[in-house]
UniProtKB/TrEMBL annotation:
The keyword Thylakoid does not apply. This is Peptidase S51. Belongs to the peptidase S51 family. Pfam families: Peptidase_S51. It comes from the Bacteria.
Amino acid sequence: MKKMFLASSFVDVADLFVKFTSAKCVGKTVTFIPTASLVEEVNFYVAAGRDALEKCGLIVDELEISTAPSEEINSKLQKNDYIYVTGGNTFFLLQELKRTGADKIIKEQISSGKMYIGESAGSIVMSRNIEYVKDMDDFTAAPNVGSFSSLGMVGFYPVPHHTNAPFKQVVEGIITSYDEKIDLCPISNTQAIIVNGDEFEVWTAQT
């Protein structure tokens, strides 16, 4: 059964993640993929996410898919307990996932029941097509992405950073443009989408 934890800002909802795993995450190893952040000037969330995972008791095993050899990509995605994909540029992320074949391995691992944790771009890339976030991310950062067809592991379209600066207006624009066309699921930085099989619900962290 698919088990996914899709967030806007992992550090703000780490307690919800521990709850989702029934605190069984302690001692587990997570493949940590920071690739989406490589083309972004702002990337503080990468270190914040890593720290939050370690505070939850996880062992972080980094995998930079844009430079890692295919054997390493295969090995880490298959052997580690969880997969975590950080925020950043969704289009660059998708380009590198497709180019390396990591997209297929991740889909297989999720389908076989491995926990997937996505943050912002890492959440968006689970939808069927990422064209809806063109106003949020610079798609020119991924000249070789080909189509915007994505991993399609969920039937809805996550919209991270709902009501949060500096994305507030951009997110409102996405909702206005696409709300009647596709099944959007906006979440704020203190919310996460919990996926169990074909069911999903939004959890909100206590502040």
